[in-house]
User: Fold Fibronectin type-III domain-containing protein from Dreissena polymorpha.
Amino acid sequence: MNHNNLEFQSSSNTFMFSWHGFQDHFSGIQRYLVAFSESNSLKEPDLRYTDVGLQTQHTFSNLTLHTGKSYIGIVKAEDAAGHQSEFVTSPKVTIDTSPPTGYECESTERLEDKWTILHTNGLQSMSVQHNLFEGKLYYIQGNITGIQNEIYTLIYINTSVRHVPLGRRIDSMYEIIYSFISPATGQSSITIDLGINISSNPFRNIAIMVCKKMTISDTAALVARQIDPFAVAVFWNIDDQESNLKMIKLGAGTTEGGLQLQPLMAVHTRKNNFVIRTSFRHNTPLFITMVAENHAGLTSVFRLSSPTVIDQTSPIVTSLETRVIVEATNVPETHDHVRISTVWEVEDLESDVEFCTCALGHAPFLDDIMSSFDSQTVRSCFADDVKQAHNSKVYVTIKCYNNAHLCTTVVSEPVTVFLQPPDMSSATVQYLPMNEQHIASDFVGLNGFPVQTNNTCLLLEWSKVGDISETMSYAYRIHENGTLLQDWTNIPLKTMLSIQHLDLKSNTIITAEIKAVNVGQFTSESITTLIQVHNLAPPLTGNPASITRINDTLLLDWADVFNTDPHIPHRYDLIIGSRDGHTDIADVAHLSKHVYEVIIPSFTLVSPVVDELFVRIVCTYSTGLSSMYKTKFII
Assistant:
């Protein structure tokens, strides 16, 4: 018979043990007496022995053994003379009726720690001392920067060493996430060993977290994370507090429970992670199966709550928009507060978006203005207190990573930082006068203002308002003889404006102001232009023209016929005929004076005898409006 000692058993109602080596050379062994007891409460007088004859093994049945308690078998021999030997005990056997258990952490708390950077044989590591508690779940997480090549990272917990698979987070940064259940209570040394020599400190935000609320979960005990296009790291929180883990086997397939990609293979029970490397195809569902066995021979099967979808494409980033926000401080010698806001859309159907980063530079892909930082959300980032000069161009570089650590990089269109209003020093604005025929006119009044007759519409034009790329909009304001007619009104980005449906009074001065607003919301000084509205024809005074005859010469003077506006240029047109409506004696246009001499002929082609003169005088403003004076002179 083979005698094998077992430390644990799963049955709680039977207890079996065997023995050998008893001898009696005189009268021989007559029988064996057996009993069992809890290992820590053995009292020989209280034992109730069972006579099993000469059998060398025995099973106690119909028992009620308690999980976690240890029991021992007791045997003594009796010879034919009735002498009994000293009792002998078996090694203790601990009862474990439950299979390995999976755990999920619902909340964590960061522990205060003080890490020490170590250099041993040229290799860099980081160590900390902490008081750990048996059965507690702990996490180690953070980033390792400045790493250009693949590294093989080890974590030492006292004398136990474990390999930790890292996910490449961004460019030269790796992410470390490791969890473990403390096997004992007491002061423990935790060391992260990179296995390479780095001159600067590569560790960033390394923290130890303790699970504050741990619940039993068969579905959440396994976690799978794709760490590169052809590698998936599997992590687990599985333990057996009664008899400890004896064996762990891990497999993977493309169907639930399947093992097409990785047959079940043994994994060291001290590890809590394993990396599956194979030629995955994009969008392949990955199902993980784990079988854990304790030393009592009980097994549990763990599976992912849902498959991990293999992702070999980076996220899709669209609709990138960036704008500059300037908050004026109004405090002398204090810079305005510049904030750059960027929003975008991002999608990753396979592994989802894990995080995005932002960087600001003077050119695409540069970070010379602001180094890369994690965005506030996966669809927006805000850069505060950006130090830039007026009219600086800024590019925002966005990198979005999925849970397979694949990255998409996009760069915004340049945005301009404006800290000053638009320059209006060389800007000009002018009215385009409109007469009754609604066409532009270049007539200018004697006071230097352009004049128009239209009292319902104003037409403005401006140019040279600084750099047109800086300007976001314009605004205008109208006064009539100093009285506000229309307050500041925003208009789109254009350089001509038609203001209609007005009711302007005649003989008034209309002032127009134009100012520009740039992208930084800074408003320029206004530029101004004026126009005179005059929609009346030269009025007649009712006085006749003076006509004087000297021999054959006729002197006409109509100075008192028209009451002209002294501020509006005007001209005269003169027609003299021997008959009404004819021009056979005089037809003179564009006279600037109000006198004219004409020689009276004795006859014309129209009249053989000239005995009366028909005179027409037309006074025309530069606006095109005119009045006519008619008279007749008998010779």
